[in-house]
Structure formats: structure tokens, C-alpha cells
Prior knowledge:
The chain contains one helix and three strands.
Amino acid sequence: MQVFATVIASPCYRILAEIRSAHNSHATNPRHYLQDLFNRRIKQGRCHKTPALGWSEFTCDYWGPFRSDWEADEAVNLEIPSMLLSVWDRPHEGTYVSHFTQGVRIERGVAVYR
């Protein structure tokens, strides 16, 4: 059986995080701690799971803080018809529920997706 796939080799990931908290206490603010923890782990090259674009065989070559000397290949412009975002509904002990996004555009070498 043959499967057609578009594979991006040597991607550079820029990981961003949004801190959400229902904690409204004025005494302590866990958001600052979580932001520091996130930045510290990125600097150390640590993450819960190594980023991959759908297939874990195609991970990034570099892991750590974003380097400003990298540039996107502006010649790359294409559309990925369907991209796998997740296979499970939870990170641990989850149920198989695959989640796809359609029509992901790579414009001037950059793809933005959630």
C-alpha cells in the first residue's frame, strides 16, 4: 500500500505558550513562575514532547532557544491538504481520537498552526 505524504525536512520550530489559570488570588501569581519555568526549559532544550509535524520520525535537528541567525526559506510556498495534529484526546491514558487540520498554508517558508 502506498501513502502520499508531504514531509518537511529539518524544520525550525518556534514554540510559544499561553498560560491559563483560574487562580485569582492576589497573594501569589503562578503565571510568573510558569513563564520562568517555560523559558528555563526552552533554554535548557527540554520539553514534555519533542515537536514533530504529524510523524514523529521527522523531528527538529536543533532544540533550544530561538536563534536570530536562522532564516526561513522564502521560496517555499505550498498548502498541506490535511495535517495530523494529535492522535489522543489526552497526553496520558487517553482515548484514540485523531485530530486533523485542513488547508495548512506554508507561505514564504513559514507555517503557523495550532
